[in-house]
Design brief:
The protein is an alpha/beta fold. It is built from 14 helices and 29 strands. Strands 3, 4, 5, 6, 7, 8, 11, 12 and 13 form a nine-stranded mixed beta sheet that branches. The chain is globular, with a radius of gyration of 24 Å. It starts with 10 loop residues before the first helix and ends with a strand.
């Protein structure tokens, strides 16, 4: 990563990159046959995978975000792809699997350096201190974790078709720190964490994941390191780093399998606290010793914590070229309650509470926090020792349900997600600060997304529901747009077109790698045209909606994005139908219920994207196979 300027390749990383390919130097431009597809040049190992690279925009998240009022202003931001259960690896008829995401990343990359972020999150006895994120595997299911979860993921990531991607893996959120802070001898102990400490399956599971994934030359492992409000105290931090090294050297792994660490994943700790430090004094006493908010913590914010963590990890034996990631997806804390200067100096509590950016009731609150906002946008090498600011937790995905909800994902109900809950030892017996009416963790939570958008800092501008903005990607493909036209380029999706009263006129130039939307829109009626291998439009006079089809084909496979646009009246539900002209077969889909009978295909809305504002849009997509010619079908859209 960059400290003040890009650092050169360090010997430790270069050596393990060469070893991973049997001694063949990656820099030589080695090409590897990609299982019948065009050969890929293996990506040279780099110090910081984010520098000089695009980052994958998840089309499923982008469609959710773009469908929200104002959401198109951020729907082009890269977010993590969460493998939070075994079924997520292959995906389903309504969700993309890992291979589908990687295929899409290759398309978005368009031959340029490109990062895709994958969250590894299914340890046995997962999250022993928070029921909302409990997993499907029991405490003793380490063999299943290895054979049914890590091994299949490693096999997919090692496919030569993805050799030119920089695959960033975030390894097991909220696991190892639990063994330090939530086991016997602490007021915060839980019986489940005692079990996981005793059986060693967190340590061994993380070690196995690091070993298997670290053997793949273009994978960069970042181990989760909690956040400053969890392990920022001296006794917690030193013990945690010792435990991380134990995990990194278990199950055949070494510290060289660790590219770095990530802090604040799926949490809300402020990036910077500009109006106080832990060493400030009030009435002759250090606020670290007297402020209830700080409570002897050594750090006040995530940036200072992450930089100090890196220094301590290197001192403990991790490679000197490790970098840090900080999740800034929900730590902006903007809005009317954001302080503009220090608090009054009448007492340490008044001083800190009046000036702190983080507006949580208590530093230990972690579930769907009221008043939170989007933080710094993803950015490479923003500060010394920091590889990137990332949105590893996709904004708008719930932390946990506000009440018990039956589900088949192994996720429980945690009272910390209940806005009426008075707290426990882990949050100092304070109110939870959670938003009401939240769904199961990982499911779309519109109210949370709107809260994050409203309170974003830096503030979000643009992104009206009928504007001409595009959730473009670095490959020039479109992942959920509002009305407008897209001028795709080989290195980014940019928007071209003019908007007049919510009606966009313009045409789209296709990309060298893609199918972006080409058409002229007038009063909700789309006349489809094809420019650069793009799309056709649906019947704009058909029952209040139109549908635009944007395919991208390769050899015997393809994906397609479909944008559904309401007419001059809002709609509550929609259905898109078409007939393939050849032997195309839909294999997976997202953001719609897609069924196929012979050559006839029907797509209907999901529960969360059926309602579309007048002249507004939503989108869905699918992946398929074909042979011969992949003709573009004519779409019919009906709405109610």
């Amino acid at each position: 990563m960059t400290i003040s300027s890009p650092r050169g390749e360090r010997p430790s990383r270069l050596r393990r990159s060469i070893a991973a390919l049997g001694g063949l130097a990656l820099a030589s431009g080695l090409c590897i046959a990609a299982g019948g597809t065009q050969a890929q040049a293996a990506a040279a190992r780099v110090d910081n995978p984010y520098v000089g690279a695009g980052v994958y925009v998840n089309p499923e998240w982008a469609a959710h975000a773009a469908a929200e009022p104002g959401g198109s202003a951020v729907s082009n931001q890269p977010t993590g792809v969460w493998m939070d259960r075994i079924a997520a690896i292959n995906g389903s008829s309504t969700s993309m699997g890992l291979k589908a995401h990687l295929d899409r990343a290759v398309q978005q990359a368009a031959g340029k350096p490109f990062v895709i972020q994958v969250v590894i999150y299914d340890l046995p006895g997962r999250d022993c201190a928070a029921l909302a994120s409990n997993g499907e595997l029991g405490p003793t299911d380490l063999p299943k974790y290895k054979s049914d979860y890590i091994d299949p993921i490693a096999k997919i990531l090692a496919d030569p078709a993805y050799a030119n991607l920089r695959i960033v893996t975030t390894v097991e959120i909220d696991s190892l720190p639990n063994l330090v802070t939530n086991t016997s001898g602490r007021d915060t102990a839980t019986a489940a964490c005692d079990v996981m400490k005793a059986n060693g399956n967190y340590v061994n599971g993380v070690g196995y994941a690091l070993a298997k994934l670290g053997a793949i030359s273009n994978v960069y492992n970042y181990v989760d390191a909690g956040h400053h409000g969890w392990i920022g105290w001296d006794d917690n931090l030193d013990a945690s780093i010792t435990l991380f090294k134990q995990a990194a050297t278990s199950q055949g792994s070494t510290v060289n399998n660790v590219a770095g660490f990530i802090t604040n994943t799926a949490n809300y700790s402020a990036l910077k606290e500009p109006y106080f430090t832990v060493n400030d004094t009030i009435n002759g006493q250090a606020v670290r010793e007297t402020s209830k908010w700080i409570d002897w913590n050594r750090y006040a914010d995530e940036l200072s914590f992450a930089q100090a963590f890196r220094t301590k990890a290197i001192a403990a034996g991790f490679p000197s070229d490790i970098g840090m990631l900080i999740d800034t997806s929900r730590n902006g804390w903007g809005g009317a309650k954001r302080p503009t200067g220090p608090g009054p100096k009448t007492s340490a509590d008044a001083y800190v509470d009046g000036g702190r950016i983080d507006r949580r009731i208590q530093l230990g609150n972690w579930c769907n926090q009221s008043g939170a906002g989007l933080g710094e946008r993803p950015k490479a090498a923003p500060e010394s020792g920091i590889d990137a600011y990332v949105w590893m937790k996709p904004p708008g995905e719930s932390d946990g349900s506000s009440s018990a909800i039956s589900n088949d994902e192994g996720k429980g109900f945690d009272r910390m997600c209940d806005p009426t809950y008075g707290g426990n030892a882990r949050n100092g017996n304070n109110m939870s600060g959670a938003l009401p009416n939240a769904p199961v963790s990982g499911h779309w939570f519109s109210a949370q997304f709107q809260e994050l958008l409203k309170n974003a800092y830096p503030p979000v501008t643009g992104g009206g529901t009928t504007g001409g903005t595009t959730a473009g990607t670095t490959a020039g493909t479109t992942a959920g747009t509002t009305a407008g036209t897209t001028a795709g380029t080989t290195n980014g999706g940019t928007t071209a077109g003019t908007t007049n009263g919510g009606t966009t006129a313009g045409t789209t130039a296709g990309t060298t790698n893609g199918g972006t939307t080409a058409g002229t829109t007038n009063g909700g009626t789309t006349a489809g045209t094809t420019t650069g291998g793009s799309t056709t439009g649906g019947n704009g006079n058909n029952a209040g909606c139109t549908a635009t089809y944007s395919p991208n084909s390769w050899n015997d496979g393809f994906t397609a994005d479909v944008t559904v646009k309401a007419g001059n009246t809002a709609i509550k539900s929609w259905k898109v139908t078409w007939t393939f002209s050849g032997n195309q077969k839909v294999t997976s889909s997202w953001n719609a219920n897609v069924t196929q009978s012979g050559t006839s295909v029907t797509a209907t809305n999901m529960s969360y994207n059926g309602s579309v504002a007048a002249n507004g849009t939503t989108s869905f997509g699918f992946q398929g196979t074909y042979s011969g010619t992949n003709g573009t079908p004519t779409l019919t859209c009906t709405a109610s």
